[in-house]
UniProtKB/TrEMBL annotation:
Alphabetized InterPro entries for the sequence: Metallo-B-lactamas, RibonucZ/Hydroxyglut_hydro
Protein name: Ribonuclease BN, tRNA processing enzyme
Taxonomic superkingdom: Archaea
Parts of the chain that traverse the membrane: none
Metallo-beta-lactamase domain span: 18-220
Gene3D superfamilies registered for this protein in UniProt: Ribonuclease Z/Hydroxyacylglutathione hydrolase-like
GO function terms (MF aspect): 3'-tRNA processing endoribonuclease activity
Pfam family, one: Anti-Pycsar_Apyc1
SUPFAM superfamilies: Metallo-hydrolase/oxidoreductase
Amino acid sequence: MEITFLGTGTGIPQDGRVQSGVLLDTEKNLLLFDCGCGVLGRIHESRHDHKAIDAIIITHLHLDHVGDILALLKANWLIGRTEMRIYGPQGTKEWYAKTMEVYDYLKGRFSAQITELSPDEEFVPEGTNGKCNCSIRTAKTVHTDNSLAYHIESNGKTVVYTGDTEPSEEIMELAEGADVLIHECSFPLGFPMTNHTTPDMLTLMMEEYPLTAKKLYLTHLYPHMQGRYREATDHIKKYYKGEVIVAKDLMIVQL
Ligand SMILES: [Zn+2]
Ligand SMILES: [Zn+2]
């Protein structure tokens, strides 16, 4: 399995970080987790083919996680691919229908087959050529009413991607023994915040529910984190024995 961080930023622009997007290559399938603004360009820069993506899997419907989905579907259509599978939380169908409503000229050009998910579901995504070679579990996150985290298993390797969230017991459980946990870390140490994560919020959770994932990648970094990365990883390392890495756009991780 190969992870490509496409976008490690948030709703506020900054150098080198576009909005949320993580590409998972299972050797047979390409799965795109979240697709915020800037992600389509990053797919191209990563030298992956946007037309080859099997499915888009969304953590929640905030603009910095879905902003480039229509742009991606349109790009596919322009080069001859007209369908896409989308998996997302409750509300994804309504979001898609309402968004498409605005773009008259795109109507009938392409279609999306949408599956809405709830917490604690397990599924095998349907790819362009039948079932994908991975199994995915969902868990609720502390962000919106329906936001989801994903546990992806393929060829004996596991990755957990939180999307936006406060640290939570569910996520610690979901990440038990995982090879990689991709956890959001929006704001720096001591920053007063709810619905997102700071390093100290994460370690407070780790004290009660020790993190057993082998590696931790921090993503969804607000500009406030600039200059505070080292402080974040140093702080987390006091509570966690695994490797802690601040993700960057276009960083590739082989599993
Ligand atoms: Zn959000
Ligand atoms: Zn976000």
